[in-house]
Structure formats: C-alpha cells, structure tokens
Design brief:
Blueprint lengths: L9 E9 L6 E2 L2 E7 L4 H14 L6 E7 L7 H4 L2 H11 L6 E4 L2 E4 L6 H5 L3 E2 L1 E9 L3 E10 L8 E13 L11 E9 L7 E3 L5 E10 L8 E9 L5 E5 L6 E5 L5 E3 L5 E9 L5 E10 L5 E6 L2 E3 L3 E5 L2 E10 L5 E11 L6 E9 L3 E5 L8 H10 L5 E5 L3 H6 L8 E7 L7 H12 L3 E6 L2 H6 L11 H10 L2 E5 L7 E4 L12 E2 L13 E4 L4 E6 L6 E7 L4 E5 L9 H15 L6 H8 L2 E2 L10 E7 L6 E6 L5 E7 L4 E6 L6 E8 L8 E5 L2
C-alpha cells in the first residue's frame, strides 16, 4: 500500500488571545503504543492495556503505531515512512513497547490504574474541536497556557488517528482482529511538530484541514499533544471527545498510613465550559468493616451518589477516611462524571493500618495472582495481612508508609521490565531494616542477568546486587517447556514436605521460560528443582538480618494451587520464626535458658544460659516491629546475659537464640518504666 497522501492540508497559527486562568488543567496520560499485527507478545499483552485504558478513556489518550517487524502488518504499510520515523524517534527495538508521556515503560502490562491516578495536573490545556463531513476534516487545536511552563523548547504535534479498525480475519499472524486508535499520519511539520511559545495567560490556536483517505474505514479524529523537544516529555494532550468537566487527584500522596485524626484526599473538579453542568459524584469503598469514608463537596458531606449543579470554574472534593481497629488496606475510588454519561473520571486513594504481612502483586489482567496468597495467609491464621499492587511499593517503603510491614510476598509473574531502579533500592532498604521477602516470577532472573541484546530490560548493577546478594541466587538460564515439573528438595526443613506440581503455561502455549538458578553463598539453600534434580527452581536464604525465598516461576504457574498455597503458608511461618530445623531444635533442647528476671523489667533483666552447644550462638532481641535492639554472641558453656533495659522504650520485646541460619523458640520480655 502506498504511503498516505493527503490532497489538502493547512496548519497555521492564526490567533493569539488571553484565556481565563484556572491555574492548572487536568493532565491526560499520553500513550504512544508500538505494536504489530504479527507480533505474538503483542497479542498476549495488548488486551491487558485495553482492560485498564477503556474505563479510563477520559483520563488519557492513546495512539497505536505499527512497526515493520516481525511480520506482515497492513497498518504499517499504510504509512511506512512516518511509522518508521516514530520508531527511530524513540529508538524502539522490540514490540510491544509502551511510551507513557514520552518515556518508555516497556510492556503494555506495566500500565495500571496508578498510571492514571498519579497523572496530576498540567500548566496547559489542549482543546481539539473539529467537524467531519465524510470527505474532509476541519478543526482547531487551542493551547491554553494557564500557568508558568517549565523552561524548554516545545512543539505541538498532531496526528490523524482511526479509532477502531476491525478485520473479519486477522491481517497478521498473531490472531488479533481489532486494533484501536491506529496512527494514520502526522499533520503540519510531521513528527517534528510545530514550534510553540508557551506564555502564561496566552492562548494559541492552530487550524487544520485534511481529506479523508479512501482506506480509512471507521471513525477518524485528530489527536494533539505538546512535547518538550529536549526531554520528549509530553506536557499535555487533547482530542475531540474530551468532556467539559475535568477531574483529577491533587493530593500528592495517594497511599497513606492511617492517621488518628483521619486521612484526607483532594480531588479538583473544573468546569471548563461557560455554563452550569450537572455532575454525578460517587465514592466506592473497599475497606475493613469498621472503617468509614465520606466526601465533602460544595460545603456538605456525603457517603452516597449525588448529582450536583456545577458552575464554571474550579471546585474541590475532600474525601475523609477514618480507619477502625481492623488491620488492612482500604481502597477508595471517587468518580466524577457528567450526569447521564456512562464513563466517569476516577481518582483512587488507599490507606494502610496494622498490616504486618503484605502481598504485593504486579498488575496483570492475563492471570489472577491472588488465590494462593489469600489462601496461604488464611491457612497461616494471619489477621494482619493485606494486598497491594506494586506501583505504590517503592514510594511506600521509601516514605515510611510501610514501616509497620515486616514481611513481603512479591509476585512479579511474567512482566517486563522485571524491576525499575526505585523498586530495587526500596526492596534493599526494606531488607536492610530486617524485612523478609518471598519473590516469585518467570524470567525475572533472566531479565536481570542476560544482556540487552537478547531483550533483557533490568540489567543494571543494582538489580544484579539485589538478586545476587540479597536473594542469594545465581542464574543459569531461562529454560523452556521441558521444565514441566517442580518438586521440593526433601532435605529442606522448611519446604521439604511440599508436594510436587506441574508447571503450567498461563501466558500461552509457547510462553514458558522457568528460570534455572542456584545458591550464591553458604547462607542459602536449594528448596525446589525441576524435572532434572540438578536444575534448581527455588532458593531460600537466611543471613540472620533477614530471610528470603526466591522461586524461578510465578506461583500462578503451579498446576496445583494447593502447592502454591502451601509455599505461601510455609514462607509466612518461617518468616515469623514458627519453623526451625529439627536438628537445631534438638540441640537447643539440651540448653537451659532461664526466663528473664525480672519480667516485666525496668532497669535490667538477667537471662542465664546453661549447657554446651556445638557451634556459636547469638542471643537476639527485637521490638514489636521486628527491629533488632540487642545482639550478643554466645561462645558455649554457661553464660549470663544482662540486658540493659533502662534505655529501651516501654513495650513488648521478643528474643531467641540463632546460629545465623535458624532461630530457636521465641520468648517475650516486657519493659516498663
């Protein structure tokens, strides 16, 4: 098919005006999605993006640019030159690849609700108005500069997009028949865009006209976005279907620890028109039974759905959350929509309280990761566990939101990149303060230890350090379907009695890459293997500061859910010190460790240890949060431990004996002042 030619295009700056300032506008998330009709991973991963994007269409804009590889694609052939230029602009080397606001995030599965929730605001608004008479499209792009714009050079880019192309038979080899928001061509100066000067208080208007090509099948529209030419960051975007009501979260921290006085979250609502608009506002609460949430709008509090008459200008919704005594993570969605419309604009917030065991899941609509984790926590009798998507993980560890969490259970699944730098550094910080982590996922180690030329995305040094020195593993290869079974190392005192299971293929018949790993130090032990006993599938490690469990496939790949559930339960019990080795326990039974005297203690507590032990022991004591407050080495024979409790805060403390790999029975000391 020939490169797209338009019979008439005009694109010029016509007018300069003064706008009515609203200070900031809603920032739409802008997606440039590189994909292909003969790309197998595209067919597997694109639906995940659409599942998230479709209900958020009023919060973002999307254009799909089709590439020349790996096979036939008529949408690429329609405009080969400009599609290829777009690939070069972002140095795209593989598909699918998702660019969000000018930055690659890798797989489309990386996009989740938090991508939209964190969009925030922009100093500019981009409006697109146009008409279509069936032969040509004419319209205007207006850039409203509402506030000071970050320094830089900016251009306005515009593209013709076909909203939904549907084939009766798949045009390529990956089976996809439906292709939303397909790029057709650029307007004006093409990919380079039109230079614009963005001055606070001034509007810039650009008019365009183009003929409709005979090959365009369905709804054609114009998409416009403003780009920093140096950073490639997209400042904001617009398209004709954008509604007159803008709603977006303005609270900087969307995931918070519960506060005694309650937690508040702000949502800005802007009526950009010059007339009153009927607006429906509702709050959806997924919260523990004794928690409560209300929202305040136009001076009154509500907890149910209401319709309001909203005048032109800027307004604010304040959501207040009051946590109860039940532990958990509560999730709230405030929805704002024009009354009568099906689709709203959502702002999401979360609050955590009393959680010690946190299940962290990579958002993925292809597979339900949760069942074995939920069942495992239930079987462990945990009343202080909750789940979280990993988009909040790094910030929540770094800013202290997760300070009360002691154990993480992190399922990455099969997603790329496996890590970003912020998550890696946050996980290391969590373990450095004594936190324990279970991690499971297919191709995670491959993504870290292979090379970028083979498609690996997480090859930076910090990720290698995380897996090598924190999870204590070595990587061999990412395997194939021959690794169809996973079995426990029967000599392991934690997981040795776990039943065998098949390794399933939830990501597709050919998407099977079980990582083969090995122990990296004397602190680690192999806990699972594949069909061949020497091909290690799982490793646990205990360096006395923290414990880790690493599985070379995701728990969703276990054919027997009960086996995956048992791994979660046993990890929980091992992390909590409820499982130790039989030999170690028998050796400790030969020792006599007295109860603390006195207990409760004020200034000092004395504990006597009598008997002999064949290896060095440490006496270790932690506070209620698992933070170590005392550690003394015992070198054998009778010994008296004198604990200086005068400088310890009043409270409950736990102590045990450990040889650096295993821990004995945990006992309690109470300090009062």
């Amino acid at each position: 098919m020939k490169k797209l030619l338009l019979s008439l295009i005009t694109f010029a700056a016509l007018t300069l005006g003064i706008n009515e300032l609203n200070a900031q506008a809603k920032r739409y998330v802008f997606f440039e999605h590189f994909t292909q009709a003969s790309c197998g991973p595209c067919a597997a991963q694109n639906p995940s993006f659409q599942t998230v994007y479709t209900p958020n269409r009023l919060n973002g804009h999307h254009v799909a640019i089709h590439t020349s590889w790996p096979g036939y694609d008529p949408m690429y052939l329609h405009n080969t030159a400009e599609s290829a230029s777009s690939v070069s602009y972002y140095t795209v080397t593989g598909v699918p690849d998702m660019i969000v606001n000018g930055r690659s995030v890798g797989s489309p599965t990386s996009v989740n609700q938090a991508t939209f929730d964190a969009a925030g605001q922009s100093p500019i608004r981009v409006r697109v108005t146009e008409s279509n008479d069936g032969r040509e499209v004419s319209g205007r792009v207006t850039i409203e500069v509402l506030d000071d714009v970050p320094a830089g050079n900016y251009v306005l880019k515009t593209a013709v997009v076909e909203r939904d192309i549907v084939y009766t038979a798949a045009p390529g080899s990956n089976g996809e028949k439906e292709f939303p928001n397909v790029f057709r061509r650029y307007l004006g100066n093409g990919l380079g865009g039109e230079p614009v000067t963005l001055t606070k208080g001034q509007d810039f208007n650009f008019d365009y006209v183009y003929s409709i090509h005979a090959d365009w099948k369905t709804d054609i529209y114009t998409l416009a976005w403003v780009v920093n030419t140096t950073t490639k960051e997209v400042l904001n975007s617009g398209e004709p279907r954008d509604v007159s009501i803008e709603a977006f979260a303005t609270t900087a921290k969307l995931f918070q620890k519960a506060e005694p006085a309650g937690n508040q979250f702000k949502t800005t609502v802007i009526n950009t028109s010059d007339q009153d608009v009927q607006v429906e506002i509702s709050i959806n609460a997924d919260q523990p039974g004794d928690w409560a949430a209300t929202y305040n709008f136009l001076g009154a509090d509500y907890s149910d759905t209401q319709v309001f008459t909203v005048a032109p200008g800027t307004h604010e919704i304040t959501t207040t959350v009051n946590a109860g005594s039940d532990a958990g993570i509560a999730n709230y969605v405030v929805s704002v929509k024009v009354a009568g419309d099906d689709l709203g604009q959502n702002s999401s917030f979360s609050v955590i309280s009393g959680v010690t065991d946190l299940v962290v899941l990579r958002p993925d609509t292809r597979v339900d990761f949760l069942p074995p984790y939920t069942a495992g926590m239930s079987q462990a009798g945990s009343l202080t566990s909750a789940k979280l998507t990993d988009n909040y993980l790094a910030a929540a560890i770094t800013d202290g939101t997760l300070d009360g969490v002691e154990h993480l259970y992190y399922n990455i699944g099969w997603n790329f990149p496996a890590f970003n730098l912020a998550t890696v550094e946050a996980l290391k910080a969590f373990m450095d303060r004594g936190g324990n982590v279970l991690m499971a996922g297919q191709d995670v180690a491959w993504d870290v230890f292979d090379v970028p030329a083979n498609g690996a995305n997480s090859t930076f040094a910090q990720a290698k350090d995380l897996l090598s020195n924190y999870f204590d593993i070595k990587f061999f290869d990412d395997g194939n379907g021959a690794r169809s079974q996973i079995a426990a190392e029967t000599g392991d005192y934690v997981f040795g009695n776990v039943s065998s299971s098949t390794v399933t293929r939830p990501y597709g018949s050919t998407a099977i890459y079980p990582d083969r790993i090995d122990v990296n130090s004397a602190d680690a032990a192999a806990i699972f293997h594949y069909n061949v006993a020497t091909e290690i599938a799982g490793v646990r490690s205990d360096n006395d500061a923290f414990k880790t469990v690493y599985i070379g496939i995701g728990l969703e790949q276990f054919g027997l859910v009960d086996v995956a559930t048992e791994i979660v339960r046993l990890s929980h019990d091992w992390f909590h010190g409820l499982i130790t080795s039989t030999e170690f326990d028998k050796a400790l039974e030969a020792l006599q460790m007295s109860a603390p005297t006195p207990n409760p203690a004020n200034v000092e507590a004395v504990i006597n240890v009598n008997g002999n032990f064949g290896a060095d022991l440490n006496f270790r004591m932690t506070d209620m949060n698992g933070v170590q407050v005392y550690n003394e080495q015992l070198t054998g024979g009778n010994q008296t431990i004198r604990l200086n409790t005068a400088n310890l805060p009043a409270g409950v403390y736990f102590y045990h004996l450990t040889d650096g790999k295993q821990a004995g029975k945990t006992q309690k000391l109470v300090v009062v002042h």
